[in-house]
Amino acid sequence: MVSVTLENVSVEFPVYGGSSRSFKKTLISMGSGGRICRDAGDRICVQALRNISFHIDHGDRVGLVGPNGAGKTTLLRVLAGVYEPTDGIVRRVGHVSSLFDATLGMHTEATGYENIILRGLLLGYSPQEIRLRTDEIAEFTELGDYLAMPVRTYSSGMMLRLAFAVSTCIDPEILVMDEWMAVGDAQFARKAEQRMENLLGSVGILVLASHSPELIKRVCNKAILLTHGQLCTAGEVDEVLQRYEALN
Amino acid sequence: MTNSNAVVMPSQDVAAARRQDKLSALDLAVGDLVAGLQGWRLWGLMGWNDIRERYRRSMLGPFWLTLSMGILVGTLGLLYGVLFGIPIDDYLPFLALGFLAWALISGVITDGCTVFIDSEHFIKQIKLPLSTFVYRILWRNYIIFAHNFVIYLVVAVVFGIWPGMAALLLLPGLGLLAINAVWIGLLFGMVCTRFRDVPQIVTSLLQVAFFLTPVIWMPELLGNRIALVHANPFFHFVELVRAPLLGHIPGALTWTVTVTVTVGGWLLTLEFFRRFRNRVPYWL
What domains sit in chain A, N to C, each tagged with a CATH number? Predict the structure, then answer.
């Protein structure tokens, strides 16, 4: 049983090189984004997340909504373990995989096969596990002999196919995603959609940040609304989305 | 704060969370170093790819480095040998090995300064041990060293150098250098990520250090001011590589200084790494 618990999590980014003069201006013109404040050492910092607490249980598909600068990406990174919060506690039971940039670490000089290995290692697989998955990935991408060619010879669409296939060959317990991944032409997009559904079917917990209410409605059973780095509402998808729409 | 019944905060889990959180920061820092080592396949491949990327589609590939350093050593050797009035048989092997060692040491330091800055993309996207990136630059610089080693082989053949059993001491020397390279990468990486002026400062200080260290000049030239050389830690690290390959055994002072620097550097770095490891992503 996987779960994620956040207790009073706050994230503050120090802003180096920000002059105190522009600080006043920013305060006045602040329409979105986290709170700008000063930390103990009187340095300017941005409070990207403030006192966030929630608990996500096994089987939950949580949609994360909020205006630009509300702290969605920061929260996803906290969940993924990239940022250890400046305050509060994050507790994860289960392994977290993050799916932010599908092309992360891809090497244009290396061949498709070599990139599968590199990405596989980045995802934490052993060479044996990668070898087991290579055929399946190769078949899914439909790139054929191109996989033995350097990735720089690929079109951007082909490259995305490969990136998508590799990053979705995971079997995560907790999956954290920033926006949905859609790739390729109509025919491939259908296949990709199917693959995403399969992936989501197997994960214990999904946290998906998106600006698309339709997507959240389709995929998620819970939702969290963030505004200015604070948790505004959390609960059933419809309620939260209503609050979100009322914001605009 | 609104918490509906769907997303609730259970109080019984919080105590457990606190306990888990009590894992000391030092454990986490050491854990990072160990986990990074265990991921050797990843940084091994990344290090290789760095080299390949730099010399893509060129015929000589990384041996361009070797060739350019070979030309440098050859011409400087002829010129400075005459200037200093040292027989070329003595001077050129000394110079070649000095350059070899210096390229490794300065490569590790300059790459160490930008290790986290250059890896920002990875660090912000995916949870990996920070040490992974340090091992990657270490490995990359050792690959370059291996390519440059060809210069030594050529010089050894041309000047008939046979270092004998002393050459075996190269291995502990390179090992000690590698252990130092890791703390240098971690410490300089952290400091340079936080203070972006430091890489510039380090680069210019390294240039000064190059001229202060007996690489192109021989320590004997200082006469009775040899203490200036003995007080220079760079000299001793260069000696770790240079002496065994010339057939000498590095002196007791060299081992004392290098081991002291290793221990001191690691103690300092562990303290820094313990305190600031989790701040690195924030500084990027």
Answer: 3-95+208-247 (3.40.50.300), 99-171 (no CATH)
Q: CA torsion sign, B208 to B211 to B215 to B220? A: negative
Q: Residue ranges of the domains in chain B?
A: 25-283
d(CA B10, CA B38): 36
A230/B18 Cβ within 8 A: no
Distance CA(A54)–CA(A36), nearest Å, equals 24
CA dist list (Å): A118 to A43, A163, A216: 40, 11, 32
**Cα–Cα distance, A27 to A35 (Å, whole number):** 9
- Residue given tokens 């939950």 in the structure block: A60
From the list B41, B122, B283, which residue is nearest A121 (CB)?
B41
pLDDT tens for chain A, 248 residues: list them. Answer: 889 999 999 998 888 765 444 445 555 445 556 667 766 666 778 888 999 999 999 999 999 999 888 889 999 999 999 999 988 999 989 888 888 888 888 888 888 999 999 988 988 888 888 988 898 889 988 888 899 999 889 988 888 889 888 888 888 889 998 888 767 678 888 888 888 888 888 889 999 999 889 989 998 999 999 998 889 989 898 999 999 988 87
Query: How many residues would you count in chain B?
Result: 284
Q: How far is A6 from chain B (nearest CA, A)?
A: 8
| Half-sphere exposure for A206 (CA within 13 Å, toward CB) | 25
A contacts of B9 (beta carbons < 8 Å): 5, 7, 53-55
Residue A238 contacts B, CB cutoff 8 Å: no
Residue pair A12/A86 in contact (Cβ under 8 Å)? The answer is yes
B15 touches chain A (CB under 8 A): no
Chain A, 113-172: which have a CB under 8 Å from a chain B CB?
117-118, 121-122, 126-127
How far is Cα of residue A188 from the mean position of the Cα atoms in its chain?
A: 23
- How far is Cα A194 from Cα A129, in angstroms, rounded to an integer? 23
Alpha helices in chain A (DSSP H): 20-28, 72-80, 112-122, 127-141, 156-167, 186-202, 213-219, 237-247
Token couple for B268: 């300092």
